[in-house]
Amino acid sequence: MALKLKKTVKELCAEAEKEIQTITPQEAVKLKDDPGVVLVDLRDIRELQRDGRVPGALHAPRGMLEFWVDPESPYYKEIFGSGKRFVFFCAGGLRSALATQVVQRMGLEPVCHIGGGFRAWKAAGGPVEQVPEKKPA
Q: ∠ CA(130), CA(102), CA(52), 5° rounding?
């Protein structure tokens, strides 16, 4: 018998989209050189190695995000206390919608995400660089 969930991922993402700001990839490309903006890549390192990365974007793996944002966490990253605007993205915009909702609820402001994620960034002509694969020692 299939698992019956109270809410599906699709429903969670739709609810998040109602609470957060979504920007277009074209808007995000225009923000890439703004010193008051931090682009935050939530994708797994394997995705970066396979698909490339946005030059200058902060890599914050989705599984660590809340810990990096919380000043009381031993994993806190000071960049999240900088007062800059944070623009989150993942591969397609679903993880970043949920992540944006969570950190916004935690109190991180201003924060938004790129609709369509990295794929939409790339399609909009946003710059991409390759990530060298680390060789095991």
A: 5
